Amino acid sequence: MKIIIVGGGSAGWMTAATLQSQLPKDKITLIESKNISITGVGESTIGGIRDWTRLLKIEDKDFMKDTDASYKLSIKFTNFYKKKSQFHYPFGVPEIKENTATLNDWWFKKLFNPKTPNSDYADCIFPTQMAHVNQNKFDTSLESAFHFDAVKFGIWLRDNRCKKVKHIIDDIVSIEQDKNGIKSLNNKYKADLYIDCTGFKSLLLDKTLKEPFESYTDMLPNDSAWATRIKYKDKRKELVPYTNCTAIENGWVWNIPLWSRVGTGYVYSSKFVDDETALKQFKKHLGQEDLEFKKLKMRVGIHNRLWVKNVVAIGLSAGFIEPLESNGLFTVHEFLWHLLRSLRRGKVTQWEKDNFTYRCKKTFKQFSEFVAMHYALSVRDDTEYWRNCFNKQWCDKLINLQQDHLVGFQTIAYDKMHKFHFNERGGMHCIAAGMNWSPTDITSLIYTNYRNIENIKKDWEPAIKRLNDRKQNAIKQTKNKINLFDYLKKNIYT
Q1: How far, in Å, CA of 171 to CA of 158, rounded?
Q2: Beta-bridge mates of residue 147
Q3: CATH number for the domain including 309?
Q4: Distance (Å, rounded) from C-alpha 375 to C-alpha 324?
Q5: Residue 460 lies inside a defined structural domain of this protein
Q6: Is residue 427 part of a domain?
Q7: Domain interval for residue 184
Q8: pLDDT computed for residue 85 by the predictor
Q9: Cα(first)–Cα(last) distance of the chain, in Å?
Q10: How far apart are CA 250 and CA 278, in angstroms?
């Protein structure tokens, strides 16, 4: 099979590297313009990136030094629930071991000790991970992702994992079509399959094939961003193993510590604030004026179909969820995984194309609703933006009882209101705890169990003690671990 990838950047070169690795007999060509503007907001990844690097047999030491990379153990959310609040969403699975019952151990701790801070949830349920996060330590045994320069990452893939990929620098000025989709590019580049990696422009799927686009702005209102880079003042202290997301007047600010600098940006909604006012808010938050700022416009949503005739869209050209949960590159490698599963059959039927679209859009919708919950559970009402989040009708299916097989708003609501606990996978339990959205309460205990509250409290005291003991033990065991900066300096940036 002849495959042409249109567009470079991290999405294009991830696609090229994946196809070269997994389909070595196919002829892969990547065409990119030398004048293309690279978005470059995907500097933070989540744990799924490890699945992709493992598939391509990429070791940390192979690329980290060349991409200004660091390790990431968690995402910190500041001021989302309300002002002066904070909590973490650590990577990995909850440390529910031998004598610990369920995630509800902590909820009962909170129930019987209301002054317990919401941030304590991650400390108790992920004690080892959070002991390293809170003390700025690192260990290779931990579940981790990366902070890296997405532009440099694309270049590294091009130079190190795409040597058999034919690389063409050219502007696509004409696209010829026939009944099968695209016939040729510039009347000379022909392929069996064309992969659109042209970013928000979506040159092939959108501009050429006119595939309709479904906007998600009703659920995810942020559509703009200002981005910049800042220098470290105290690198050993400020180089932390987590992404910090801080809610401000009309959105939130990301803070991503790379090895040589910090990437930061303000994601906001143009419906509630104009660009210049947003820039002023961002500068005020940073406390710095003399920086170079880049304006970004985001297209939030996804196309109706992602595989149309002989065109597949990967990356921003397919769809985009705002970057609150560092999902930009996640959708790239997830969609690529599903694409590989379809291509391995050889000839691809329409059924296979439709199945690809279904699976990718389901993943996309699930993630979108997960991100939306960060706003839906906020009790902030200090600006019009946050009052809109507070009063917004988020999901009609919840009140109209419409069936939906997606794991989203409905499942989350059901877990809390009927099961009285959250699924330990997927991360919703971390967000719920941080946003003070408890699945347990005194009324429900009395109503459903007909038991004396004092007896329930007595029954749960041993479990609560075990949580506290595990947290303290993890803190002690982590004190002598190596600092993240020192680990990187010793093992990566030698």
Answers
A1: 19
A2: 44, 70
A3: 3.50.50.60
A4: 11
A5: no
A6: no
A7: 2-69+148-217+300-372
A8: 97
A9: 43
A10: 8
| For range 28-42, the mean pLDDT | 76
Lowest mean pLDDT among 75-79, 262-266, 355-359, 411-415: 411-415
* Averaged pLDDT of the chain: 93
* pLDDT tier, 490 (very low <50, low <70, confident <90, very high otherwise): very high
- Domains contained in the chain, number: 1
Judged by phi (left if over 0) then psi (alpha if -120 to 50, else beta), residue 97 lies in beta
DSSP element (H, E) containing 74: strand 74-78
Which structure tokens are listed for 189? 């580049």
Whether the predicted pLDDT of 441 surpasses 90: no
Is the pLDDT at 346 greater than 90, yes or no? no
- In one-letter notation, the amino acid at residue 323 is P
276 token code pair: 């210049």
Global pTM value: 0.94
The answer for residues whose C-beta is within 8 angstroms of residue 257's C-beta and 6 or more apart is 70, 147, 238, 239, 240
Write out pLDDT tens, residues 220-239.
Answer: 999 999 999 999 999 999 99
Q: Which residues contact 141 (CB under 8 A, 6 or more apart)?
A: none
Asked, for residue 288, whether it belongs to a domain, the answer is: no
How many helices and strands (H and E) does the chain possess?
Answer: 18, 20
d(CA 196, CA 192): 13
Query: Angle 31-37-43 (CA atoms, 0-180°, nearest 5)?
Result: 100
Q: How far is CA 230 from CA 113, 146, 291, 293, 310, in A?
A: 41, 19, 8, 11, 43
Spatial separation of the C-alpha atoms in residues 150 and 316, rounded to whole Å: 14
Instruction: Identify which of 35-49, 249-263, 402-416 has the greatest average pLDDT.
Output: 249-263
**Percent of the chain's residues with pLDDT above 90:** 80
Query: What is d(CA 413, CA 392) in angstroms, rounded to the nearest whole number?
Result: 16
Give which of 195, 202, 186 is closest to 16, Cα–Cα: 195
Find out whether 98 and 442 touch, Cβ atoms under 8 Å.
Answer: no
For 12, the token pair is: 């294009």
Domain-located, residue 274: no
Contact 9, 197 (CB under 8 A): yes
Alpha-carbon distance 21 to 19, whole Å? 5
Average pLDDT, integer, range 477-488: 97
